[in-house]
Design brief:
The structure holds two protein chains of two kinds. By secondary structure, chain A is α/β, with parallel strands linked by helices. Chain A is built from twelve helices and 15 strands. Classes of the chains: A alpha/beta, B mainly alpha. At the A-B interface, helix 3, strand 6 and helix 4 of A face helix 1 and helix 4 of B.
Chain lengths: 326, 273
């Protein structure tokens, strides 16, 4: 694999840069030749259905699972046995739910980590404030709700003031109110604390309000990587028009160089290259005497795009060479 | 080294509100209470069978430490090791601990150190309990033959003399408890080991029919602690039991170091589930 100069710069600047990461469990290919680039100070949503390889990737990023091959760079430095501890000092994590001691209080749980990695005790109050757990800090964790446990998990991840936060399914098991609260917490982190957030989820809808970048994985392979806007643009500018004369409208639009599709029931859809074309087409239809009853965008939802991508991967129509980087 | 001390402190901290410290105080205290109840309720005029130089040794080697080393200590170590590992297994805290900027071996070694410390606490309770029981017997049952002064040197020697060989037992039980998340695995290993140990220790009195039995018992981790206090000189076949305590001590300490190193190495290189 040849890496160009600009790619090298991007790799050096990225909070996480993964190249050719592979891990098998027996016959099962959990992650295959995965490459990722997570820019600094963004919220990167790592998406994929259950069993796609998200958690295995995260475990490899944290050194909990050894890759069979491939490189992991954190802030430009290759993760190896000699650099692992130094790099982990810059990472906070919550993998597959919070790791807590239920027989201790929330404060004592934070003390365990504070004492272990020799942090100032004032850091505990700081993260309790961020996660709004001050009033419940001295209650035993076994009396906490799932949402409070998740927030405590986030507090543990933030305790050492990490530059990179890796969260595996942070809203798993939360009720809608808990999800909203967790999302708000995560959304604030890059701006207020300068943290890069890498979070995994199997639901796009859950993270599309907070993510700036998206990576989609299916069957251990990266299917898409880019900004959320780039992902949204993949749906194109499709418009649905309801008219009194669909056949006449199709003819007018074809004369204008477009390729409408008559769906019957007085409806047709057209894919436009840009918004200006939509205005031109409507003007042409109106001047040709075609009545327009309704006009609306007909974009597939992000969820559908996500499902399309991951379903395609399930049936094997993507190869690694076809990964979409936008 | 600082990192190891911090890990040990944290390990102790994590045992708050658990049964770990309580059991290391209560289980040996129950042994003392049981033997005390039996001794105080003996009919007047009975005397300890003094097959040891003094009544204090009889109290320890024929009563408290037999109960303790024969069965209770191996089970106690099994329980403590399962607890030290279970505290991390319960919410799968290994993945969090091992993703912290801390050497993994310090976590493993700190559990070993705390496990040994809990064994020492139980020995301390036995030692203080023995002195207390002896004092009660001198004061209230002088007919039993226990006399002043309280032999603190002997009490410490007897109650702590077997502790070094517990290292191997703890190293095995802790490795198993860390390796398998299911609590029943270390408990089954501990119970099975204790039962086999009991059978092996029976050969001390029948060394004529099973001459290699005592030697195997001195190398078997679950029977080693009893070997260290067993009245071997009274064996029916002294040559079959010669040097058993030295063998047990050597095997316990060196085996403990070896198994700890292997367990630590295996835990370090294994993927964290």
């Amino acid at each position: 694999m040849t890496i160009t100069g600009s790619e090298q710069t991007a790799t050096r600047d990225a909070a996480i840069a993964v190249c050719g990461l592979t891990r098998r469990f027996g016959e099962i290919r959990a992650v295959h030749n995965l490459s990722l680039s997570v820019p600094q100070k963004c919220v990167y949503a790592f998406l994929g259905p259950n069993g796609a390889g998200k958690t295995t990737t995260i475990r490899m990023l944290l050194g909990l699972t050894r890759p069979d091959s491939g490189d992991i760079r954190i802030f430009g430095e290759v993760m190896s046995s000699s650099t692992r501890l130094r790099l982990l000092r810059r990472i906070g994590s919550m993998v597959e739910g919070p790791s807590v001691y239920p027989h201790l209080t929330g404060y004592e749980n934070l003390q365990v980590m504070q004492k272990l990695i020799s942090l100032k005790r004032s850091e505990i109050d700081r993260v309790l404030h961020i996660t709004r757990l001050q009033s419940d800090a001295h209650r035993l964790v076994k009396t906490y709700s799932q949402g409070m446990r998740q927030r405590l998990g986030l507090a543990l991840a933030l305790l050492a003031k990490p530059d990179l936060l890796i969260l595996d399914e942070p809203t798993n098991g939360l009720d809608p109110a808990g999800m909203i609260e967790m999302r708000e917490l995560i959304r604030r982190l890059p701006d207020e604390y300068g943290v890069t957030v890498f979070l995994s989820s199997h639901l796009l809808g859950e993270v599309e309000q907070i993510a700036t970048h998206v990576g989609i994985i299916g069957r251990g392979q990266l299917l898409f990587e880019g900004t959320l806007e780039a992902f949204q643009q993949r749906s194109g500018n499709r418009v649905a028009i309801e008219t009194d004369n669909p056949a006449g409208a199709v003819e007018v639009l074809r004369r204008g160089g477009w390729n409408p599709m008559n769906l019957g029931d007085s409806r047709l859809t057209i894919e436009f290259p840009n918004r200006e074309s939509v205005a031109n087409a409507v003007a042409m239809l109106v001047s040709s005497g075609v009545k327009i009853y309704q006009i609306r965008t007909d974009q597939p939802s992000l969820e559908n795009l996500f499902l399309d991508l991951t379903e395609e991967s399930r049936f094997g129509s993507h190869t690694q060479e076809e990964v979409l980087h936008e | 080294m600082n990192e190891l001390f911090r890990a040990i402190r944290v390990e102790v901290f994590k045992l708050r509100r658990t049964l770990a410290l309580l059991s290391s105080l209560l289980i040996p205290a129950v042994v003392i209470a049981m033997t005390m109840a039996v001794n105080l309720s003996r009919s007047q005029g009975t005397e300890f069978v003094l097959d040891h130089p003094n009544g204090w040794d009889t109290l320890m080697l024929d009563q408290t430490l037999v109960l303790w080393c024969f069965v209770l200590l191996p089970l106690f170590v099994t329980l403590e090791a399962a607890l030290l590992a279970g505290i991390e297994h319960r919410e799968n805290n290994w993945k969090h601990l091992f993703a912290l900027p801390v050497h993994r071996w310090t976590i493993y070694v700190s559990k070993l150190v705390v496990g040994m410390a809990l064994v020492c606490v139980s020995s301390l309770v036995l030692a203080v309990g023995t002195a207390f029981q002896g004092w009660l017997l001198v004061e209230f049952r002088p007919d039993l033959g226990v006399t002043y002064p309280i032999p603190w040197d002997l009490i410490i020697l007897r109650n702590f003399g077997f502790v070094p060989v517990v290292f191997l037992l703890l190293a095995i039980q802790l490795w198993v408890a860390i390796r398998w998340r299911n609590f029943t695995v270390p408990m089954s290993v501990g119970i099975a080991g204790t039962l086999i140990g009991v059978m092996l220790l029976r050969t001390l009195k029948n060394s004529v029919s099973t001459p290699s039995g005592p030697w195997i018992a001195s190398m078997f981790p679950w029977s080693m602690p009893y070997i260290m206090i067993a009245p071997i000189s009274n064996s029916t076949l002294p040559e079959a039991t010669a040097g058993l305590q030295e063998t047990a001590l050597l095997a316990g300490v060196l085996g403990g170091l070896l198994v700890s190193a292997l367990g630590c190495w295996e835990t370090l290189r294994r993927d964290v589930a």
